[in-house]
Amino acid sequence: MVSSAWRAWLAAFVFLASVTALVILSRSTNPSIGFYVAAMSIGSAAVALSLWKSPAITARTVMLVAVAAHGLALFGETRFEDDFYRFIWDGWRVLETGTPYGVAPLDFYDNLAVPPAMQQVLEWINYPELPTIYGPVLQGLFAITTLFSGADPLGLRILFGGATLLISALLLRRFSPEKVALFAWSPMVVAESTLHLHPDILLSLTLVAALYWGRRHPVMGGALLGLAAGVKLVALAAWPVLLRLPPKAMIAAIVALLALYSVFAVQGQGVGFETTATFASDWYFNAVTYELLDAAFGPEFGRLAALGIAGVLVLWAHAIAHDFERVPLGFVFGAILLFAPTVNPWYLVWILPFAVGRREVTPYVASVVLPLSYFTGFNLDDLNLADFDVHPYALVAERLLLAAAIGYDIFRAWQRSPAAQKPKLCPISEPKVSVIIPALNEETSIGKTVQGILKAAPTGLSQVIVADNGSSDDTAQLAREAGASVVYEPERGYGAACLTGLSAVSPDANIILFMDADLSDVPEEAASLLEPIILGEAEMVIGSRALGQVEKGAMTTPQRLGNWLAPALVRMIWRMRYTDLGPFRAVRRSSLDALAMADRDFGWTIEMQVRAAKLDMRVVERPVSYRRRIGQSKISGTIRGVLAAGTKILYVIAREAFGDFGAADRRKARPSDAAKTKDVTISA
After folding, report:
1. Which of 32, 130, 548, 625 counts the most CB atoms within 10 A of its CB?
2. CA 136 to CA 133: how far, in whole Å?
């Protein structure tokens, strides 16, 4: 305990000393960029190492030390950065004309109506030939700070420093103090918010607040995500979290964002999208991996490739999250920066608040190495480098250390000890198996299918139910004659028929076996599907055609493709290995109830498998044979059926990936009121 307490106080001392050094250097006449970067990098490294496993901190200590550091930063000056001049100018323009958009600062150079204080600001604005790029939320805040502090950046310092402290306070409500201190006591965070005056900290504040309040107050969460996009459009990468909330959250986000932009759009001078397009297509600085894509595909297609790769990683990160609060936004923004053509050091504040409570070291290594990007030709006064070219040694150090950190995190993720082995289920001493066979116009095969399963007589067979899905032939009559109970579901859909079949299952049934009505499944193989459940080795057993024998012509090419793609996506997202979506399957009844099956058509099988993966059920596969069906398939037999089934399967995977498996999904699907059952005694 003493050792950890000393590490905590050491971290606090190093943090405050680093911020003090930055403030003193910023007020120097000709500060050394080397010492300045060292204060950020070495300070960030020392704080992170001291705090990594230190429990001896209180929330009050975290906040008091952070307040002291930002208070010190209020006395600093902004060196090596000049973006804040644009913020002050934009604020003045909003106060004067109602909008900062559409007119470049360059157009005001000879305008005598500009006050002297703003003339001095105007002289220092970078890229004066371009209209402003900053979002409507920032413009409102710039106007407020300019109203109260004029051309003095003190108002911006208080705004950005206050935002950083608010983030720390919100994080302390969810995480332990020593974890929050890794963010709150980062010299780089103080430098890039209160000292360097970058508004990106406001993006993080709105996102952290959205995650904190979103579950309890979905409309507020949505509105906050709308505000986040109003700060910077990159926040749209976080919007898939809204799919885990009620629809009103997404509506609130869209309404909030549109309302923010409409305030300026109605004035007819645009909303900054033209400069955003210029930034996206032309700007390049300190890229991490983008150069590889640029070299391979050229600038235009390289940017598209980078956008595509980052987009896939962003969607994957959202999909693998278990719930709303645990969506890895740090990974989301990290993926964007990894492939972005422009990576400024202050972009790291998009990531650090969401690294709190996680085990990855990459964000903290990034806080050490990204300040090296301040070693530019302009800051070094190096005539051999262009103004915004980063020194080659700094680039090499950045990339090597980031690559090492990313590699280490990936290695640790793969090497983590597996979860404790699940306790074995109790064997089912008296199995009672109900067989459900959905059928639509299967008069040529239904009788043989029912007779086949009755003749096979797997252990515990007590009931065979044919769910007639609105057949116009003699399917129902022939099923009854063969020895099955028949229920009727007039609404077309495989899932609808299965749900109605479940409504007729005997109350004492403890295993449900699903099979098709077209004789493609081999009834004699039912015993191999039931055995693991009876023995307590599995909750669900899927008959895998991929592991068994498939008769030539029994599966079409689209079926084989779907059977590869869907399981691959499930494995990628939920780490559950499947080889097939086969309809021949057995499920423990209590486990099937927990799945709360609701899909009423082509998505039934994949919904069952995905939800089993999400609930971490014991699922095994057994090889089964698959024969050419009798009659034409309603799915694989038509182009329309193939497209509909494929689309629905992908939709179900997306729905389950981006939505919580919560109360809305656990509702019980009610069978049609038209469902009727006629019981028939089943003989061996």
Report:
1. 548
2. 10
